[in-house]
Each structure stands twice: as structure tokens, then as C-alpha cells.
Give the backbone structure.
Amino acid sequence: MNPMKVLLRNPRRELEVSGHRRVNSLLDELALNRESHLVIRNGTLVPGDADIADDDTVEIRPVISGGS
Amino acid sequence: MVASGSKCRVCRGPAIIDLPRHNANFCAEHFLELCRRQVTKAIEHFAMFEPGDRILVAVSGGKDSLAVWDLLIDLGYQADGLYIGLGIGDYSEASAVYAREFATARGLRLVEVSLREEYGYDIPTASRATRRVPSSSCGLSKRHLIDKAAIDGGYDVVVTGHNLDDEAAVLFGNKLRWEIEYLARQLPVLPARDGFPRKVKPLVRLTERETAAWCVVRGIDYLVEECPMAAGNKHLAYKAALNAIEADSPGSKASFYLNFIERMAPLLAAERAVGVESVGTCRECGAPTTGEVCAFCRLVEKAGAHERVPVELVVGRWGKR
């Protein structure tokens, strides 16, 4: 089993995280607001209570734009 | 604790998104239905436009403008796009690619205007030349060029991708300072007047998490990276504050903005009437203006005469104001 790959944006960076957890738990661990992010697991959008685990590739995509 | 593998509220199939403000989860199909319904409700409730109207969508290559363009076409409206090249280094080059690829893949018409090529300046240079935050010259340039493209092209209405978060953040800022004149004008529809085109915001009932999700589900590639010149601006700080409230009290952003529109905006009608100044035409370009020369032509003259400034020299300069 390989650790989960977690892609973060703005700035773009990648983390490796081991072990099973819920999407919302990962956002909490990274201190990211659920209202400001989408989570895409292996290319598919998933809700906050979805399970993520080793071998998954997870993109945490910020949705906040700065213009007005 | 919510059980893993949450279900769609409508069909009980596997959910792809949780929307706490609706206290519900949705599968892809029914999430898209929800978005269509919210946009249709905004268009109809605020009488934004009619089927058959010629629509010009201001397109940046980001999630909101591509989502609203896609939604309008999906709902059967006729809409062209307008992309303005702002000259913000790699960011602008990448955003243009997303806008072009979206239009080309769907056979849609995208009109392009380049600030540097057609007006001799870009936003980093304008910011330095005017000694103002970049969003000042950026907003002025976009408003002028969008208005001009809409009038010249004979469009009935301009659509922008402002979403619920954008509107709530602007409302929050205006309320913090009790900017009554701005509050009076903060409506999802600005009627055409004195040579200005009609402008509408069909996404005011969708959060930006929802517009981003629309793009992901529909397979729309958009520029995820933030504008390098936006970092640290007040608008982002207001959004963060509102999202902190939303996390504790889902639905707060929607009630804050939509109840303002329903309950408070009518009380400001008299203020809107007071705010209308008599408008003439710009001596240089013929655009509507209250002065002899419009603000855009003054900016072109000032920024066009300034030595070109690379974006790297301007980024971060305004972040801590």
C-alpha cells in the first residue's frame, strides 16, 4: 500500500498521508474550511463523509476567487 | 455522525456533494438539476432576460464565468463570450487558453480584446502608473470594455459570473462602512441607461463551491490558480469571514444576501434615484461619462505613457493594506 497522495493548490503542492479517514477529517487536519474547498478522489467529486485511504489520489481544490 | 456513503436526497443513489445549506447531499445528475433550477429561478425572478435575447457573457477563464456560460447554453439561451486580455503575465495567458478551449469545444463565439495590443497598457503597468491597487484599474478597464463590446455588438444584455459569495462579500464590505450609495445599487440586475448596457448576474443563487462543482461534474477545465494580484485583498478577507460563519450556521450567506435584496433593497429605491447624475459623452471615445473625458480614456493616457511594468514587480505590494 502506498500512502494517499494529496494535491493542494494556490500554491500547488503535494502531501503524502497514511491511513483511512473521512474527507471532512482530512480537511479538519489541514485546517481547511469545507465551504471553501471541493475534494476530488481519483478524479471524482466526493462528499464530506466519503472514505479516503492509502493508494487514493485526492485533490483538494480551493473554490474562492479574489475578484469582485 | 453521518454514515459513510451518503445518498442523494432525490434518488437515494450515491452522493457526490454535500450541501449543508440545503441540509442535503446530491448525486451528479440531481446536483446539476439543482444548479439549473437555482439559475432559472434567478433569471425569472429578477426578469434578467428572455429567450431570444442576445447575451454577451464576460468570460475570464475561471470557474464562474465558464459555469454561467455553460448553464445559459444548457438552458437554451443564445450567448457569446467576451474575453479581455489583462496582461497579468502567465496568469492571463493561461486564462485565455481555458476560455478559448471552452468556446472552441462547444462551437461558441468568443470575442477577444487585448489591453496591451489595443490600448497600449496592461494591469500591472496601470497599477504602477496610477499608484492604486491593481483591482482599481482592472475593474475600470473591464467595465469600460465590456460596455463597449455590448453596445458595439448590439447585445441585449451582459452576463457576469458573480456568484452568491461574491455578492455577499461585497455586501459585507459595503455594510461595514455603511456605503449607502453602493448598497442602493447592489442589485442582480442593472438596467440599461444613458448608453450603458443592461447587466445581470444569474449565479447569485449559487455559491462558488457550487459553481466549481458544476464545472467539475460537467468536465469543464478552468483556471484554478488565483490571480496573483488578488492575494491579500479585502474581498478575500470578507469571504473568509463569511465562510467561517457559514461553517457554524449553514445558509447564512444566502439569507444575508438574498434577504437584503428582498427586504432592504426596496427601502433604498429613493437613494438609487438620487445617485443618478446627468451623463454626457466622452470627448475622446464617445462613451457615457459625467466628465469631459471618461475615466478609461484618462487611464489609457496615463498607463500607456508609462514604462511597461512586469507583474512580478507589482505582486504582493498591496497585500497588507
In short: Chain A has a mean pLDDT of 93.
